[in-house]
Design brief:
The chain is of the alpha+beta class. It has two helices and six strands, in the order βαββββαβ.
């Protein structure tokens, strides 16, 4: 099962300890074949909508910065519970904040 784990931005600046702990976590998940992709996201983005034959393109941002997704990890695990446990471990490393987990369907 694949899950997209997304985190929202916080006001807390990252320090060397955080980078070291996250580096170990990422290495562990990569070596286990769990982590498929990870990255940060720009705060704005572009919204593309369609209605009939009309395509509209609007530059972001669209929400308050604290509501936007700041980063993601795509993981492949055996169950939703395993994805939740990985997210718990992530939150323990990065501290206070919010993450969202969604199952990814398809190949």
């Amino acid at each position: 099962m694949r899950f997209l784990m997304m985190s929202k931005p916080t006001d807390e600046p990252a320090d060397e300890k955080l980078y070291a702990e996250m580096g170990k976590f990422v290495e562990e998940l990569t070596a286990a074949g769990i982590l498929l992709a990870t990255g940060g996201l720009e705060p704005g983005g572009v919204r593309v909508t369609s209605a009939g034959d009309e395509i509209t393109v609007i530059d972001g941002p669209f929400t308050e910065a604290k509501e936007a997704v700041a980063g993601f990890a795509l993981v492949e695990v055996r169950s939703r519970e395993e994805a939740i446990e990985l997210t718990r471990r992530f939150r323990r490393i990065v501290g206070d904040g919010e993450s969202v987990i969604q199952q990814v369907f398809g190949p």
